[in-house]
Every structure is written in C-alpha cells, then in structure tokens.
Amino acid sequence: MRPTTSKRTTRAQSSTADPAALATTLAERRPEDIVDLLNQNKSGFVAAVLLALPEAKAVAVLDQPRLRHGAGIVSMMPPDRAARLLDQMSADRVADVVREMRVSVRNDLLVLVGAETKSALESLLPYPEDCAGAIMTTEFVAVPSDWTVEQVLAHVRAVEHTRETVYAIYVLDPQHGALRAAVPLRRLIGADPKGNVLGAAADLQPLAIAPDAPLDEALRLISKYNLLALPVVDVEQHLIGIVTVDDAVDTLVARQNAEVQHFGGMEPLSEPYMRIGFFELLRRRAGWLCALFLAEMLTASAMQTYEAELEKAIVLSLFIPLIMSSGGNSGSQATSLMIRALAVREVHLGDWWRVMLRELPTGIFLGAILGVLGATRIAAWQLLGLFDYGLHWMLIALTIAVALVGIVTFGSLTGSILPFILKRLGFDPATASAPFIATLVDVTGIVIYFTTASVILRGTLL
Amino acid sequence: MRPTTSKRTTRAQSSTADPAALATTLAERRPEDIVDLLNQNKSGFVAAVLLALPEAKAVAVLDQPRLRHGAGIVSMMPPDRAARLLDQMSADRVADVVREMRVSVRNDLLVLVGAETKSALESLLPYPEDCAGAIMTTEFVAVPSDWTVEQVLAHVRAVEHTRETVYAIYVLDPQHGALRAAVPLRRLIGADPKGNVLGAAADLQPLAIAPDAPLDEALRLISKYNLLALPVVDVEQHLIGIVTVDDAVDTLVARQNAEVQHFGGMEPLSEPYMRIGFFELLRRRAGWLCALFLAEMLTASAMQTYEAELEKAIVLSLFIPLIMSSGGNSGSQATSLMIRALAVREVHLGDWWRVMLRELPTGIFLGAILGVLGATRIAAWQLLGLFDYGLHWMLIALTIAVALVGIVTFGSLTGSILPFILKRLGFDPATASAPFIATLVDVTGIVIYFTTASVILRGTLL
To answer: Does the complex come out with an ipTM higher than 0.95?
Structure first.
C-alpha cells in the first residue's frame, strides 16, 4: 500500500537510452514518482520521454513543482506540442515554467498557446518571486451571488476538471464583481438546491490578500485559519486568483530546507547532495566560507594590537577560544530567537527597543552564570594543582568572569538587534544573520577580553 | 477584507475582568482570532469565557491547536459541561487535550463523555508523539465499495458536519473492510449518480501509512503527493484514521520554529518571546549555553598543553580565532547539509561512506582555498610592512595554510558524519548536532594547529 519507489529499478530503467520504451514502463506510475526518476536525466531526454507519454500523464508530470528544469524541458519540445501541453497545465505552474525561459523561446511559444493560457500568464507573470501573486493560480471557481445552489453545483460539475480546487467556491457581487463570500463545497452539497448560494456561505467576510502582499503573509493566513485556498483580490476587491494549500506546503518545505542551509552558512543547493556536481557543490560552499574567513581575518588584526599584552601574560591566550565561543553562542541564540519571532510576527520592527530592554538583563544574567562557571574552573584547577595560572590566578579568574559578562551581554544585544537591522535594510534576516553575528561577536569579544584584562591586571601581570 | 486583529482593542478587552461581557464581544469573531486573545489570559478566566460563549463557538475555539493550556482550561470547567464540549470537538484535538490532563481529571471526564468520543480516544491515545497515529483523526468518511454514487453523496450530506474532511471519501471492501480506494468529492459530484462509487476513484491503490510510522513520513507523503488527507491503515489494511493537510501544515510550521531555535543552541520556547516570563526565558537559554561552555572548557585544557609552544612563538596565538572559526564554519556547513539530506531522504543511514567519499576531497579543496587566502594575508601584511611576523614569516604562513587544510577537512568529515551517528543512536540530528560539532571541531582544531606548527617550525621558532 506504501508507494513502491524502488531506487534500484528506476535507476536501471533510466539508463536505457530509449525514451519511448521508458515512457511505456512509466505510463502507469504516479506523476510524483515519475518526477523522481526524470529528475535524474538530462532535459533533452526528459522532453523525449514526456512526448512519448500519454498526453494527460505528460501534463500531470509537468504540473509537478518538484520537476527540475521545467523551462529547459519544454524548450526542447517542438513548439506546437509544447504549447498544447502548456494549455493543459495549471496556470500557476505554466507561469513558473515560462518565467524561467529564455525570452526568445518564450515569445515563440506565447504565439502558439491558447487565449486562456495567454491571459492567465499576463496576470501571473508580473509578480515578483516573494509575493502572494507569484504562487497564486487563476483556476478557481467563481459564481455570481444571485445563483441558486443547484446552478452553482451544475457549474462546478462542468468546470471541475479545469480547476485547481473546487472545494472553495467564491461568490461575487453580480454588479461590480467584488468578492462577497467563500462557500465550502461540503456545505453546498448539503444545502437546499433551490436556495441562494449565499445561504451556504460562512457568515463572515472571507479572508483575502493583495497580490503584492508578502508570500509569508499568505502562508501565515493559510496556516492560521486552516484554509484550503486563500483568495487574492485587487484594490477593488475583485478576485484575481487563489493561493492553494498544496502550494503553501511546497513553499514551507522548500523554505525549511533553504533556511537550515543558510543557517549552516552556505548557498542552498539546487540539487540533492548526492547528485550535485563536485565543483557546483564546492562553489556553493566556498563562497560563504571564504566570505566568513575574510571577515574573521579581522580577529587576527585585533589580536595583533594586543601582542604586547600577550607577551607579558601568555596565560591570557589560553582562554581565547572559550571566551570567543561563548560570545558566538549567546549571539546566535539571540539571533535565532529574533529571526523566528519576526517571522511569526510575535515581534515587529518597531519593537526593537522592547527587545533590547529584555536582552540587556538576560545577557547580564547569562554572562554572570558563565562567569561563575569559568572562574570556578580556574580556581578548581589551581587549588587541585592541575595547572598553575601563576601568582595572580585570582585576578585572572576575575578577568575571565568579568569579560564573560561583557561578551555575553554584547552577544545577546547584537544578536537580537541584528535581525531587525537586516530586515529594515530589506535583507532576509534568516539568510544573512548567522555569519554576520559570528564575525562581529568574535572581533568584539577579543577587544572586550583584552580591555577587561588591561584594567584588572594593570600593575600586576600587565 | 484582511483580518482585523487590532492588538490594542483585544488587550483592552481582556483587562475587563468580566468573562460574560468579553464573551459577548467575542461571539462574532473568528475562532482563530479568539484564540490569540484568550492565549494572553489565565486558564480559569479562559474557561469562564468559553462557558459564556455560544456552545458551537466554544467548540470551535477549543478545536484550535494553537489554543494553549487546553487541558488546564477544560479541567477548570464543570465536568458535565466539559464532557459536552469534548463530545463536539474533533477527535484528534480531544486526544491532544486529554493527553495533557492529570490522570484523576481525565478519568472523571471519561465517564461522562459519549460512546463515540470514548472509542475515538481509545484508538488515538496510545500513539506516542512522533508517529503518524498521534496526529490522525478518526473522523473520516468511509463507504462500502458496493454503494452507488448517489448513496455515497446522501451519506456525505448526513455526516458532513461531524467529519474533519469530506473531500476524500474512502471506499472499503464490504467483506473484510480493507481500504480499496480513495475518491475525491470533486469527482463524485460530477459522476453518474446511479453508477458504482469505484467508477469515480483514481485507478491506483491509494497511498496509506501505518499508525506507528514516523510523523515525518506522513508529512513527506502529504507534501509530495499534494494530499488533502492521508489514510492510516493497520496491518490488515483496515482504515483507522486520516492525517489531514491542515494538521500537516501546523506541524511543519511548529517544527520550523523549533528547528531554528535548536540550531541557535537553545530549548524551543513554549510561549512567544515577548510574553514568556523572564526566568523561564533564562532557563531555556542558560541550559544549552552552560552545556556548551562546559564542553568548550576543553579548549582551555587543550591550550594549556601547548603553553610551552605558545611561550616560544607568541605569534601563533594571533591566528587561533581565525583557525578555530574556519573549522567551526566548515563543520556546521557540512552538518546542516546532512541534516537536510537525511530529513528529506536524499541520503540514507547506509550512505555514510558515500558521503565521506565526497566530503574528503571537498574538505581538502575548501581547506586549500582558505589556506591560500590565509597565507596571502600573512605575506601581504609582512611585505607591505603592516605587521612583522618575524624572520620565519614564510614558515608561519605555511603553518597556517597546512593547518587550515587539515582543520577544514576534519570539520567537513566530522560535520557530515555526526548526523548519521546521532540518528543511528536514536537522537534527532537537527536538535543535537550544532553544539556537538562546534565543541568537537574547536578542540581538535587546536590540536591540529599546534601539531602542524610543531612539525613545520621545529628547529626554527619551536
């Protein structure tokens, strides 16, 4: 009953170079599983396989957002065949594919597609990637508010196979076409056939979103209100599209992958780890790693200014890794907290000073806890005779403790405020914060540490 | 048309201590928005508000997974009222609430609830938190395969208001009750009323999952196959529940929050940042921070063993932060890559050696790139007269370059293998990897650095 995706079989099949033979063995499989297999092949081969598949199946495969290089695949087909497939695909997916095409190919194809596809593309293509309009589809069911339940059901039956979802039916004002209600199909089939469609509607104004609203806001509404589809309306409340829950799920999953990879300090991979080329993998990782390395070179410069202090008190160098990692850890903790709080809207840009007011005492407390631990460690090693920190070991312990309070407080404050600054400047905090904070806190940590030392140890070690 | 959640108004309302008055102003709001407001109040007050609301609205509010302390709220109601509300809630949510109750309260209530609720609880409660059974609901529509379309539609109309979803209808074998097909409602309403229900089914065996399968697997299937609901079947293919897409979305969103916070090295917060108590916030952050600090103390121990080398060549200490951060960065990069690859099943536990075979050359290459950058930096500063690294500056540059190759390679290898080990031992790699890898790589980085130095600089500086 589980999906039978035997990797071994599909790989063996894909190595047979005959697209027609492969198409025959694939015809009975689910489109999602066919995608898994085709993704391992070159665009030209995939195009040939799709052309050899029954047309409905080829359309179902092309409709999958997980199919890679969709634009390249379609570009390799004879234009008339390509146009016929595009005409049958769901509008939002056609827009995704066409968006990636070279302009010359795109223009050739747009002459050949049907009027409906063309008008859908005209309304979908203009939206930039990160807004609700970019993942909406125009294939929804809308009816005038003076229809009966019976009329609506007949209409649903007629258009069912060309609509992305029919489970939410949108009721429009018959005069100005403004969105008045959303009717769930489940309510409709139980309602009096002769009654007005509005009788089956929820009594509230439906939730809706503007096409240029952030994608995040669409995801938040769908998740919070458990919607199967969210209407997208223009300023005059005309329904121009819907965002469906399955696109929301796909976006959430893709975003989760990208977020973890960003957090790990790299460009998200476009292909699975095992399949991506060696040099492509290297390129995606080397960029960030080099940027971080160049930034961290500042730590060497910072250290150089304290060479005199280090020569006098070599013991100070022993704690540099410990001090630096504490600053980094407290900073990335505060950063990850704020990234989430901003993303789920628990805090807003204007709340930055409230956050600072919480982080200041939190940082001091956390730093004090670590400071006590650090000083205890030094005292324990000294008194147990495990290591000799010299005559002034108590002052050294004090230096470590005070420096930790300073560094953890600084880390918490910078870590929490940085996502606000990045967001204000128009960057995505999740992408940019982690590397920034590490470098910033490391360099400052060195400065705080040696400044503390020069105050406490003046006249004794320094 | 947007949801009008004016924070100011709702906060003002919640400060009026009269639950009945508040209930009156809330009665017309969406349940999701009522939850936002009630979450700011104590359980006793929330119970009183819910009892004063119209019963259907109270049920809708209790049905929201985002409502906090559901068990506490229900426990504070008179048992007969509580039981009546539970009877009307969706089965999976009742199970979530009852799971959190103190045993005494739970037993009192279970005597009072209806037979249907009781049997739903009996089948839902046994499943542990991280398996498909834990988020499934028993409120699905199932019909025998010898029914006509007309019969099924009549049944759907009759049970619609007590089912979580009616958009997927499950067709069972009339003899043994095994799941035979899933029929989308949209297909059914267009089908011939007199025809057999199986005529409207997709031709393939429906996807299904076992109740003890990992929750992740359910999420993966729902997301990959764009399902509105995934059937859960026992070993004899009897349908025992369904996992709906809205629960999958809720789980994805909650998990994303937890993952980023884990990655930042802390226990995920149970409440929004701005509302959580100061000491609770401290507790969640201090735990990890202290654990990391204690582990990082090993760096001080490692440094102590190289005190003699440091005294002879103080210049070596200048590059410690740079070297350590490079190891940490390459390690966390490799870790985050593998966490994702394992989570989305691009790689499997048995692939560990294949991953090592990729990471070894990748690490050497990345290390070499950083090594060249580092050596160039030293040469540049020396030749431009910005800093004097002494007579043997070329050997120092060589030491840094070689150490970087070793550390980045080690970081990439350990970082990529650690998620495999943690997963094999039964831990969640996403939760546990980040802190482990930092400490491991930091300590080893020091050892690699000084070992390299002692080989290259022997007879000159050391």
So the answer is: no
> Model confidence over A323-379: pLDDT tens digits?
988 998 888 888 888 887 887 777 888 889 999 999 999 999 999 999 999 999 999
Backbone angles phi, psi at A168, to 5 degrees: -120, 125
* Residue A166 in contact with partner chain B when CB distance is under 8 A: yes
Instruction: Reduce the DSSP state of residue B144 to 3 states and report it.
Output: strand
Contacts of B206 in chain A (CB under 8 A): 1
> Of B217, B428, B188, B290, whose CA–CA distance to A157 is shortest?
B188
- Inform me whether the C-beta atom of residue A312 falls under 8 Å from chain B C-beta atoms: no
Please state whether the predicted TM-score (pTM) of the whole model is above 0.90.
Answer: no
Check A259 against B257: CB less than 8 A apart: no
Cβ-contact B175, B190 below 8 angstroms: no
Averaged pLDDT for residues B218-233: 91
Q: Phi and psi for A233 in degrees, rounded to 5?
A: -125, 150
Fold of B7-126: MgtE N-terminal fold (1.25.60)
Rounded to whole angstroms, what are the CA distances from A449 to A170, A301, A324, A400, A456?
63, 15, 9, 8, 11
The chain-wide mean pLDDT, for chain B, equals 86
Q: Give the mutation candidate from B35, B273, B408 for the A interface (greatest A CB count, under 10 A).
A: B273
Contact A260 B288 (CB under 8 A): no
**DSSP per-residue codes, A53-89:** S-HHHHHHHHT-TT-TTHHHHHHTS-HHHHHHHHHHS
- CB burial of B215-248 (b: ≥16 within 10 Å; e: otherwise) equals bbbbbbbbbbbbbbbbbbbeeebebbbbbbbbbb
Cβ atoms of B460 and B395 within 8 Å: the answer is: yes
Q: Which DSSP symbol is given to B196?
A: B
Sorted by where each begins, the domain ranges of chain A are 7-126, 141-244, 278-456
Interchain CB contact of A299 with B (< 8 Å)? yes
Work out the average pLDDT over B149-163.
91
Written as one string, the DSSP assignment of A312-364 is H-GGGGGGHHHHHHHHHHHHHHHHHHHHHHHHTTSS-GGGHHHHHHHHHHHHH
**Fold adopted by A141-244:** CBS-domain (3.10.580)
Instruction: For the domain covering A278-456, report its CATH number.
Output: 1.10.357.20
pLDDT for res A83:
93
Handedness of CA A95, A100, A103, A104 (dihedral sign): negative
**Alpha carbons A384 and A388: distance in angstroms, whole number:** 10
Residues 190-229 (B) with a CB less than 8 A from some CB of A: 190, 204-209, 221-226, 228
> What count of CB pairs under 8 Å joins A to B?
352
Q: Which residues of chain A have pLDDT under 50?
A: 1-15
> What's the CATH architecture for B141-248?
Roll (3.10)
Q: Which pLDDT belongs to residue A308?
A: 87
Query: How big is chain B by its Cα radius of gyration, in Å?
Result: 30
CA distance B307 to chain A (A): 8
Instruction: Return all residues near B275 (Cβ < 8 A) that are at least 6 apart.
Output: B40
Do residues B171 and B145 lie in contact, with contact meaning Cβ atoms separated by under 8 Å? Answer: yes
Asked if A341 and B222 come within 8 Å (Cβ–Cβ), the reply is no
pLDDT of residue A338: 87
pLDDT digits (tens, 9 = 90+) for B269-286: 767 787 788 888 888 888
